Amino acid sequence: MINNPTSDLDFNDYLDWYSPNETQTELLPEHLQRAIRLTESIHRSQQRWAVYLCALGSLGFEQWLKERAPDLEIHSDAASIWQPATANLLAAACNIQVGAWKICIITASIFNDQHSIPHAVFDIPDLAAHFYVLMQVEEEEQQVAISGFMNYEQYRSYQQTANLQIERDWTYTLPQTCFNPDPNALLLNLRCLNPDAIQLPANIPARETNQIVALKQKLIRLKPQLQNQLPWELLTVNEGITLLSNPDLINWVYQATSPSLLQPLINVGLWLNNQIDTVAQELGWMLMPSPALSGLRSLRENFDSIRTSLEQQGVYIPSSAQGAFRDLDSEQSSLRMYAITWELTETPDNPEWTLLIALGSQPQAQMPNTLTLEVRDETQQLFEESLFDTSVGILYAQVIGNLNEQFWVTVTADDTVFEIPPFGLGIEARG
Fold this sequence. Notes:
Blueprint: H1 15-18, E1 25-26, H2 29-39, H3 45-68, E2 74-75, H4 84-87, E3 93-98, E4 101-107, E5 114-118, H5 120-123, E6 131-138, E7 143-151, H6 152-162, E8 171-175, H7 183-192, H8 209-226, H9 237-244, H10 247-256, E9 266-267, H11 278-282, E10 286-287, H12 297-312, E11 322-329, E12 334-344, E13 352-360, E14 371-376, E15 381-387, E16 395-402, E17 406-413, E18 416-424
Parallel strand pairs: 4-6, 9-18
Antiparallel strand pairs: 1-7, 2-3, 3-4, 5-8, 6-7, 10-11, 11-12, 12-13, 13-16, 14-15, 14-17, 17-18
Helix pairs in contact: 2-3
Protein backbone atom coordinates (compact mmCIF):
# COMPACT_ATOMS: atom_id res chain seq x y z
CA MET A 1 0.00 0.00 0.00
CA ILE A 2 1.41 3.40 -0.97
CA ASN A 3 1.32 6.09 1.71
CA ASN A 4 0.79 9.68 0.65
CA PRO A 5 3.70 12.06 1.44
CA THR A 6 3.19 14.24 4.47
CA SER A 7 3.58 18.01 4.30
CA ASP A 8 6.46 18.13 6.82
CA LEU A 9 8.55 15.44 5.11
CA ASP A 10 12.22 16.28 4.67
CA PHE A 11 12.78 14.76 1.26
CA ASN A 12 16.58 14.93 1.65
CA ASP A 13 16.34 12.23 4.29
CA TYR A 14 15.15 9.85 1.60
CA LEU A 15 17.47 10.60 -1.30
CA ASP A 16 19.38 7.38 -0.69
CA TRP A 17 16.09 5.51 -0.47
CA TYR A 18 15.07 6.82 -3.87
CA SER A 19 18.41 6.76 -5.59
CA PRO A 20 18.74 4.10 -8.29
CA ASN A 21 20.48 0.93 -7.19
CA GLU A 22 21.77 -2.13 -8.90
CA THR A 23 18.34 -3.76 -8.83
CA GLN A 24 16.71 -0.97 -10.79
CA THR A 25 14.82 -2.53 -13.67
CA GLU A 26 13.13 -0.91 -16.62
CA LEU A 27 9.52 -1.88 -17.06
CA LEU A 28 8.59 -2.94 -20.57
CA PRO A 29 5.49 -1.65 -22.40
CA GLU A 30 3.90 -5.08 -22.12
CA HIS A 31 4.36 -4.95 -18.34
CA LEU A 32 2.38 -1.71 -18.13
CA GLN A 33 -0.31 -3.07 -20.43
CA ARG A 34 -0.69 -6.26 -18.42
CA ALA A 35 -0.99 -4.34 -15.15
CA ILE A 36 -3.58 -2.01 -16.67
CA ARG A 37 -5.61 -4.97 -17.94
CA LEU A 38 -5.56 -6.43 -14.44
CA THR A 39 -6.91 -3.24 -12.86
CA GLU A 40 -9.82 -3.28 -15.30
CA SER A 41 -10.98 -6.51 -13.64
CA ILE A 42 -10.74 -5.11 -10.09
CA HIS A 43 -14.23 -4.14 -8.98
CA ARG A 44 -13.32 -2.11 -5.92
CA SER A 45 -12.08 1.28 -7.09
CA GLN A 46 -10.19 1.84 -3.81
CA GLN A 47 -8.04 -1.19 -4.59
CA ARG A 48 -7.06 -0.55 -8.21
CA TRP A 49 -4.04 1.70 -7.67
CA ALA A 50 -2.49 -0.60 -5.06
CA VAL A 51 -3.09 -3.62 -7.32
CA TYR A 52 -1.58 -1.76 -10.29
CA LEU A 53 1.62 -0.94 -8.38
CA CYS A 54 1.92 -4.45 -6.96
CA ALA A 55 1.48 -5.95 -10.43
CA LEU A 56 4.25 -3.71 -11.75
CA GLY A 57 6.45 -4.68 -8.80
CA SER A 58 5.87 -8.36 -9.49
CA LEU A 59 6.62 -8.04 -13.20
CA GLY A 60 9.71 -5.96 -12.42
CA PHE A 61 10.96 -8.54 -9.94
CA GLU A 62 10.51 -11.30 -12.49
CA GLN A 63 12.37 -9.24 -15.12
CA TRP A 64 15.19 -8.49 -12.68
CA LEU A 65 15.55 -12.15 -11.72
CA LYS A 66 15.67 -13.28 -15.35
CA GLU A 67 18.40 -10.72 -16.06
CA ARG A 68 20.48 -11.33 -12.92
CA ALA A 69 19.92 -15.05 -12.34
CA PRO A 70 18.65 -16.77 -15.48
CA ASP A 71 19.51 -20.09 -13.86
CA LEU A 72 16.70 -19.59 -11.29
CA GLU A 73 13.35 -20.72 -12.61
CA ILE A 74 10.43 -18.48 -11.70
CA HIS A 75 6.71 -19.23 -12.02
CA SER A 76 4.37 -16.35 -11.30
CA ASP A 77 1.21 -16.98 -13.32
CA ALA A 78 -0.47 -18.58 -10.29
CA ALA A 79 0.40 -15.62 -8.02
CA SER A 80 -2.53 -14.16 -6.09
CA ILE A 81 -2.13 -10.76 -7.73
CA TRP A 82 -3.14 -12.25 -11.11
CA GLN A 83 -6.33 -13.71 -9.65
CA PRO A 84 -8.78 -10.79 -9.84
CA ALA A 85 -11.12 -12.14 -7.15
CA THR A 86 -8.23 -12.34 -4.66
CA ALA A 87 -6.52 -9.14 -5.77
CA ASN A 88 -9.87 -7.40 -5.35
CA LEU A 89 -9.31 -7.93 -1.60
CA LEU A 90 -5.54 -8.28 -1.23
CA ALA A 91 -2.96 -6.14 -3.05
CA ALA A 92 0.00 -8.48 -2.61
CA ALA A 93 1.58 -11.06 -4.92
CA CYS A 94 1.65 -14.29 -2.92
CA ASN A 95 2.63 -17.73 -4.19
CA ILE A 96 5.30 -16.74 -6.69
CA GLN A 97 7.53 -19.78 -7.03
CA VAL A 98 11.32 -19.49 -7.48
CA GLY A 99 12.78 -22.97 -7.45
CA ALA A 100 11.72 -24.52 -4.15
CA TRP A 101 10.93 -21.14 -2.60
CA LYS A 102 7.65 -19.28 -2.20
CA ILE A 103 8.01 -15.53 -2.75
CA CYS A 104 5.63 -12.73 -1.80
CA ILE A 105 6.02 -9.35 -3.49
CA ILE A 106 4.91 -6.30 -1.52
CA THR A 107 4.89 -2.73 -2.76
CA ALA A 108 7.14 -0.54 -0.62
CA SER A 109 5.92 2.66 1.02
CA ILE A 110 8.24 4.95 -0.86
CA PHE A 111 7.78 8.11 1.25
CA ASN A 112 8.04 6.36 4.60
CA ASP A 113 10.34 3.91 6.34
CA GLN A 114 7.28 2.21 7.84
CA HIS A 115 5.47 -0.29 5.64
CA SER A 116 1.81 -1.32 5.90
CA ILE A 117 1.69 -4.97 4.92
CA PRO A 118 -1.48 -7.11 4.86
CA HIS A 119 -1.31 -9.45 7.84
CA ALA A 120 -2.87 -12.21 5.71
CA VAL A 121 0.38 -12.72 3.77
CA PHE A 122 2.00 -13.83 7.04
CA ASP A 123 -0.86 -15.34 9.01
CA ILE A 124 -2.79 -17.38 6.43
CA PRO A 125 -0.74 -20.51 5.65
CA ASP A 126 -1.81 -20.71 2.00
CA LEU A 127 -0.44 -17.19 1.46
CA ALA A 128 2.69 -17.32 3.62
CA ALA A 129 6.08 -17.14 1.86
CA HIS A 130 9.68 -18.11 2.52
CA PHE A 131 10.79 -14.63 1.39
CA TYR A 132 9.00 -11.28 1.38
CA VAL A 133 10.42 -8.86 -1.16
CA LEU A 134 9.74 -5.12 -1.00
CA MET A 135 9.56 -3.53 -4.43
CA GLN A 136 9.94 0.20 -4.93
CA VAL A 137 7.80 1.22 -7.91
CA GLU A 138 8.49 4.48 -9.72
CA GLU A 139 5.54 4.32 -12.06
CA GLU A 140 6.15 7.61 -13.89
CA GLU A 141 9.74 6.59 -14.67
CA GLN A 142 8.55 3.07 -15.52
CA GLN A 143 11.16 1.59 -13.20
CA VAL A 144 11.16 -0.71 -10.20
CA ALA A 145 13.83 -1.68 -7.69
CA ILE A 146 14.19 -4.09 -4.79
CA SER A 147 14.32 -2.13 -1.55
CA GLY A 148 14.68 -5.04 0.85
CA PHE A 149 13.67 -8.56 1.77
CA MET A 150 13.04 -10.66 4.84
CA ASN A 151 12.24 -14.32 5.42
CA TYR A 152 9.32 -15.82 7.27
CA GLU A 153 11.29 -16.77 10.38
CA GLN A 154 12.65 -13.22 10.65
CA TYR A 155 9.07 -11.98 10.56
CA ARG A 156 8.08 -14.42 13.33
CA SER A 157 11.00 -13.29 15.48
CA TYR A 158 10.12 -9.60 15.03
CA GLN A 159 6.44 -10.30 15.65
CA GLN A 160 7.18 -11.86 19.01
CA THR A 161 9.79 -9.28 20.03
CA ALA A 162 7.78 -6.23 19.00
CA ASN A 163 4.39 -7.70 19.97
CA LEU A 164 3.00 -6.77 16.57
CA GLN A 165 -0.68 -5.86 16.54
CA ILE A 166 -3.01 -6.06 13.56
CA GLU A 167 -4.15 -2.59 12.55
CA ARG A 168 -7.79 -1.80 11.91
CA ASP A 169 -7.19 -2.09 8.13
CA TRP A 170 -5.90 -5.66 8.54
CA THR A 171 -2.23 -4.73 8.16
CA TYR A 172 0.96 -4.93 10.18
CA THR A 173 3.30 -1.95 10.31
CA LEU A 174 6.90 -3.08 9.80
CA PRO A 175 9.93 -0.76 9.78
CA GLN A 176 12.40 -0.68 6.91
CA THR A 177 15.05 -1.94 9.32
CA CYS A 178 13.34 -5.38 9.29
CA PHE A 179 14.38 -5.82 5.66
CA ASN A 180 17.81 -6.71 4.33
CA PRO A 181 18.66 -4.07 1.70
CA ASP A 182 21.21 -6.25 -0.11
CA PRO A 183 19.65 -7.91 -3.20
CA ASN A 184 22.75 -10.08 -3.63
CA ALA A 185 21.96 -11.69 -0.28
CA LEU A 186 18.53 -12.57 -1.64
CA LEU A 187 20.08 -14.24 -4.68
CA LEU A 188 22.50 -16.12 -2.44
CA ASN A 189 19.63 -17.42 -0.32
CA LEU A 190 17.63 -18.47 -3.36
CA ARG A 191 20.61 -20.34 -4.80
CA CYS A 192 22.28 -21.87 -1.78
CA LEU A 193 19.98 -22.06 1.22
CA ASN A 194 18.51 -25.42 2.10
CA PRO A 195 14.70 -25.27 1.63
CA ASP A 196 14.25 -26.81 5.08
CA ALA A 197 16.02 -23.84 6.67
CA ILE A 198 12.84 -21.75 6.65
CA GLN A 199 9.78 -23.42 8.09
CA LEU A 200 6.43 -22.12 6.90
CA PRO A 201 3.29 -22.42 9.02
CA ALA A 202 1.47 -25.70 8.59
CA ASN A 203 -1.87 -25.61 6.87
CA ILE A 204 -4.53 -25.41 9.54
CA PRO A 205 -7.63 -27.57 9.26
CA ALA A 206 -10.46 -26.06 7.26
CA ARG A 207 -12.53 -23.58 9.20
CA GLU A 208 -15.65 -24.96 10.82
CA THR A 209 -18.51 -25.17 8.36
CA ASN A 210 -20.75 -23.15 10.66
CA GLN A 211 -18.19 -20.31 10.63
CA ILE A 212 -18.26 -20.24 6.84
CA VAL A 213 -22.06 -20.40 6.70
CA ALA A 214 -22.38 -17.62 9.28
CA LEU A 215 -19.95 -15.43 7.34
CA LYS A 216 -21.76 -16.12 4.05
CA GLN A 217 -25.03 -15.05 5.66
CA LYS A 218 -23.40 -11.88 6.98
CA LEU A 219 -21.88 -11.09 3.58
CA ILE A 220 -25.29 -11.51 1.95
CA ARG A 221 -26.75 -9.02 4.41
CA LEU A 222 -23.86 -6.63 3.73
CA LYS A 223 -24.06 -7.00 -0.03
CA PRO A 224 -25.31 -3.44 -0.70
CA GLN A 225 -22.39 -2.04 1.34
CA LEU A 226 -19.64 -4.18 -0.17
CA GLN A 227 -19.51 -2.03 -3.31
CA ASN A 228 -18.50 1.16 -1.51
CA GLN A 229 -16.99 0.11 1.81
CA LEU A 230 -13.72 -1.60 2.57
CA PRO A 231 -13.92 -5.16 3.92
CA TRP A 232 -12.21 -4.26 7.21
CA GLU A 233 -14.92 -1.65 7.78
CA LEU A 234 -17.55 -4.40 7.71
CA LEU A 235 -15.88 -7.55 9.07
CA THR A 236 -13.79 -8.52 12.07
CA VAL A 237 -10.20 -9.71 11.73
CA ASN A 238 -11.25 -13.33 12.32
CA GLU A 239 -13.98 -13.01 9.71
CA GLY A 240 -11.36 -11.59 7.33
CA ILE A 241 -9.16 -14.64 7.92
CA THR A 242 -12.12 -16.93 7.21
CA LEU A 243 -12.89 -14.96 4.05
CA LEU A 244 -9.34 -14.93 2.68
CA SER A 245 -8.90 -18.63 3.48
CA ASN A 246 -11.97 -19.68 1.49
CA PRO A 247 -11.88 -19.43 -2.33
CA ASP A 248 -15.66 -19.79 -2.61
CA LEU A 249 -16.24 -16.79 -0.34
CA ILE A 250 -13.56 -14.79 -2.16
CA ASN A 251 -15.29 -15.48 -5.47
CA TRP A 252 -18.69 -14.65 -3.98
CA VAL A 253 -17.48 -11.23 -2.81
CA TYR A 254 -15.92 -10.62 -6.23
CA GLN A 255 -19.22 -11.33 -7.97
CA ALA A 256 -21.18 -9.34 -5.40
CA THR A 257 -19.04 -6.24 -5.97
CA SER A 258 -19.27 -6.34 -9.75
CA PRO A 259 -20.57 -2.92 -10.85
CA SER A 260 -22.15 -4.46 -13.95
CA LEU A 261 -23.90 -7.26 -12.10
CA LEU A 262 -27.64 -6.62 -12.21
CA GLN A 263 -29.62 -9.25 -10.39
CA PRO A 264 -32.56 -10.52 -12.44
CA LEU A 265 -35.99 -9.68 -11.05
CA ILE A 266 -38.49 -12.44 -10.39
CA ASN A 267 -41.61 -10.72 -11.71
CA VAL A 268 -44.43 -11.96 -9.48
CA GLY A 269 -46.85 -9.50 -11.09
CA LEU A 270 -47.05 -11.88 -14.04
CA TRP A 271 -48.06 -14.68 -11.69
CA LEU A 272 -51.29 -12.81 -10.95
CA ASN A 273 -52.10 -13.13 -14.65
CA ASN A 274 -51.20 -16.84 -14.58
CA GLN A 275 -47.98 -16.15 -16.47
CA ILE A 276 -44.34 -16.67 -15.60
CA ASP A 277 -41.32 -14.74 -16.83
CA THR A 278 -38.16 -16.17 -18.38
CA VAL A 279 -36.01 -15.35 -15.34
CA ALA A 280 -38.24 -17.35 -13.01
CA GLN A 281 -38.40 -20.26 -15.44
CA GLU A 282 -34.61 -20.38 -15.79
CA LEU A 283 -34.30 -20.46 -12.00
CA GLY A 284 -36.62 -23.46 -11.79
CA TRP A 285 -39.84 -21.78 -10.65
CA MET A 286 -43.18 -23.38 -11.61
CA LEU A 287 -46.59 -21.75 -11.28
CA MET A 288 -48.93 -23.34 -8.81
CA PRO A 289 -51.58 -25.22 -10.83
CA SER A 290 -55.24 -24.27 -10.56
CA PRO A 291 -57.64 -26.74 -8.91
CA ALA A 292 -59.13 -27.53 -12.34
CA LEU A 293 -55.91 -29.17 -13.49
CA SER A 294 -56.55 -32.60 -12.00
CA GLY A 295 -53.38 -34.04 -13.50
CA LEU A 296 -51.40 -31.78 -11.20
CA ARG A 297 -53.63 -32.32 -8.19
CA SER A 298 -50.75 -33.78 -6.17
CA LEU A 299 -48.94 -30.47 -6.35
CA ARG A 300 -51.99 -28.66 -5.00
CA GLU A 301 -52.46 -31.26 -2.30
CA ASN A 302 -48.84 -30.87 -1.24
CA PHE A 303 -49.34 -27.13 -0.83
CA ASP A 304 -52.75 -27.55 0.80
CA SER A 305 -51.02 -29.04 3.83
CA ILE A 306 -48.82 -25.94 3.94
CA ARG A 307 -51.89 -23.69 3.64
CA THR A 308 -53.66 -25.57 6.48
CA SER A 309 -50.62 -25.19 8.73
CA LEU A 310 -50.42 -21.46 7.95
CA GLU A 311 -54.13 -20.94 8.63
CA GLN A 312 -53.71 -22.61 11.99
CA GLN A 313 -51.13 -19.90 12.71
CA GLY A 314 -53.50 -17.13 11.61
CA VAL A 315 -52.19 -16.64 8.05
CA TYR A 316 -54.98 -16.61 5.46
CA ILE A 317 -54.29 -16.67 1.74
CA PRO A 318 -57.05 -15.01 -0.37
CA SER A 319 -58.50 -16.74 -3.42
CA SER A 320 -57.02 -14.01 -5.63
CA ALA A 321 -53.48 -15.00 -4.62
CA GLN A 322 -51.20 -16.74 -7.04
CA GLY A 323 -47.88 -18.37 -6.49
CA ALA A 324 -45.07 -20.55 -7.69
CA PHE A 325 -42.61 -22.99 -6.21
CA ARG A 326 -39.11 -24.26 -6.78
CA ASP A 327 -37.06 -27.06 -5.25
CA LEU A 328 -33.88 -26.33 -3.30
CA ASP A 329 -31.55 -29.31 -3.28
CA SER A 330 -28.30 -29.93 -1.44
CA GLU A 331 -26.18 -33.03 -1.09
CA GLN A 332 -27.81 -34.04 2.19
CA SER A 333 -31.42 -32.91 1.88
CA SER A 334 -34.12 -31.22 -0.15
CA LEU A 335 -36.95 -28.81 0.43
CA ARG A 336 -39.56 -26.94 -1.57
CA MET A 337 -39.90 -23.18 -1.46
CA TYR A 338 -43.29 -21.61 -2.09
CA ALA A 339 -43.74 -17.92 -2.96
CA ILE A 340 -47.33 -16.63 -2.86
CA THR A 341 -48.32 -13.08 -3.78
CA TRP A 342 -51.42 -10.94 -3.89
CA GLU A 343 -52.32 -7.27 -4.05
CA LEU A 344 -53.84 -5.55 -1.05
CA THR A 345 -57.11 -3.71 -1.63
CA GLU A 346 -57.37 -2.09 1.78
CA THR A 347 -55.16 0.88 0.82
CA PRO A 348 -56.39 2.19 -2.60
CA ASP A 349 -54.59 5.54 -2.13
CA ASN A 350 -51.30 3.78 -1.51
CA PRO A 351 -51.41 0.42 -3.33
CA GLU A 352 -49.40 -2.37 -1.72
CA TRP A 353 -48.68 -6.03 -2.31
CA THR A 354 -47.68 -8.89 -0.09
CA LEU A 355 -45.17 -11.70 -0.49
CA LEU A 356 -45.52 -14.90 1.51
CA ILE A 357 -42.60 -17.33 1.60
CA ALA A 358 -43.08 -20.82 3.01
CA LEU A 359 -40.65 -23.73 3.20
CA GLY A 360 -41.97 -27.26 2.94
CA SER A 361 -40.89 -30.72 1.95
CA GLN A 362 -40.54 -32.29 -1.44
CA PRO A 363 -42.47 -35.55 -1.93
CA GLN A 364 -40.49 -38.56 -0.67
CA ALA A 365 -37.48 -36.36 0.15
CA GLN A 366 -35.62 -35.81 3.38
CA MET A 367 -36.02 -32.36 4.90
CA PRO A 368 -32.97 -30.52 6.28
CA ASN A 369 -32.51 -30.79 10.03
CA THR A 370 -32.35 -27.03 10.49
CA LEU A 371 -33.63 -24.10 8.44
CA THR A 372 -33.09 -20.35 8.52
CA LEU A 373 -35.24 -17.95 6.50
CA GLU A 374 -34.29 -14.32 5.97
CA VAL A 375 -36.09 -11.58 4.03
CA ARG A 376 -34.75 -8.08 3.42
CA ASP A 377 -35.48 -5.09 1.24
CA GLU A 378 -32.95 -2.75 -0.34
CA THR A 379 -32.00 -1.13 2.96
CA GLN A 380 -32.59 -3.48 5.87
CA GLN A 381 -33.38 -6.93 7.16
CA LEU A 382 -37.12 -7.42 7.62
CA PHE A 383 -37.31 -10.97 8.91
CA GLU A 384 -35.01 -13.69 10.18
CA GLU A 385 -36.03 -16.87 11.95
CA SER A 386 -34.55 -20.33 12.40
CA LEU A 387 -36.20 -23.69 12.84
CA PHE A 388 -33.98 -26.20 14.60
CA ASP A 389 -36.40 -29.11 14.27
CA THR A 390 -38.16 -29.18 10.90
CA SER A 391 -40.53 -31.90 12.05
CA VAL A 392 -42.40 -29.57 14.40
CA GLY A 393 -43.74 -26.89 12.05
CA ILE A 394 -43.56 -24.69 8.97
CA LEU A 395 -41.05 -21.88 8.56
CA TYR A 396 -42.62 -18.92 6.76
CA ALA A 397 -42.35 -15.15 6.37
CA GLN A 398 -44.83 -12.54 5.15
CA VAL A 399 -43.83 -9.02 4.10
CA ILE A 400 -45.73 -6.08 2.60
CA GLY A 401 -44.36 -3.46 0.24
CA ASN A 402 -45.37 -0.70 -2.11
CA LEU A 403 -45.65 -1.30 -5.83
CA ASN A 404 -41.98 -0.45 -6.50
CA GLU A 405 -40.53 -2.39 -3.59
CA GLN A 406 -38.44 -5.55 -4.00
CA PHE A 407 -37.59 -8.29 -1.52
CA TRP A 408 -34.53 -10.55 -1.28
CA VAL A 409 -34.83 -13.98 0.32
CA THR A 410 -32.05 -16.16 1.72
CA VAL A 411 -32.59 -19.74 2.86
CA THR A 412 -30.01 -21.69 4.85
CA ALA A 413 -30.66 -25.44 4.90
CA ASP A 414 -28.22 -27.09 7.32
CA ASP A 415 -24.88 -25.92 5.88
CA THR A 416 -26.10 -24.82 2.44
CA VAL A 417 -27.00 -21.20 1.71
CA PHE A 418 -29.48 -20.42 -1.09
CA GLU A 419 -29.56 -16.78 -2.19
CA ILE A 420 -32.74 -16.00 -4.16
CA PRO A 421 -32.82 -13.08 -6.65
CA PRO A 422 -35.23 -10.28 -5.72
CA PHE A 423 -39.00 -10.60 -6.00
CA GLY A 424 -40.80 -7.59 -7.45
CA LEU A 425 -44.35 -6.86 -8.50
CA GLY A 426 -43.31 -5.70 -11.98
CA ILE A 427 -45.72 -2.80 -12.38
CA GLU A 428 -45.87 -3.13 -16.15
CA ALA A 429 -47.19 -6.69 -15.77
CA ARG A 430 -50.22 -5.81 -13.67
CA GLY A 431 -53.43 -6.45 -15.46
